Amino acid sequence: MTTQHLPTVREIMDKYVDTLKPETDIWDAVDFLLEKRVTGALVADGKGKLAGILTESDCLKLLTLGGPDHDAPKGKVKDFMTSAVESIPPTMDIYYAAGLFLTKNFRRLPVVEDGRIVGAITQFDILRAVQRGLEGMKKRPSAARAFAGVA
What we know:
By secondary structure, this protein is an alpha+beta fold. It is built from seven helices and five strands, in the order H-E-H-E-E-H-H-H-E-E-H-H.
């Protein structure tokens, strides 16, 4: 029987991830998300440790805040971010990561090793990897059985 290599998160994750600092002004963070065309960003402390995540939903809270004269709300990323963030190790196989995406309402997962952010993975990254795997199987029919878990 041949042992099948399951692709890991490390193989397909984004290794370069722009992060925000907890002390960043919230309006600068909104500009950052819009400029980068992303739906959220990881928040890291000065040592590269995961402090939270700031998502579009977190930023929409700005609409419900403000002064009685309709002043724009003020604050820092740390005031709006989600602090309780699930992360995954880079050694996790992508099928397990895909299962997390299916059971949780996440669009991205931080990848953390030894307490530090080493990347991030999105549903799109996994979909792209599956597509590459399926294209390879079309060329090698025996690979299709292996990809499907059939010996």
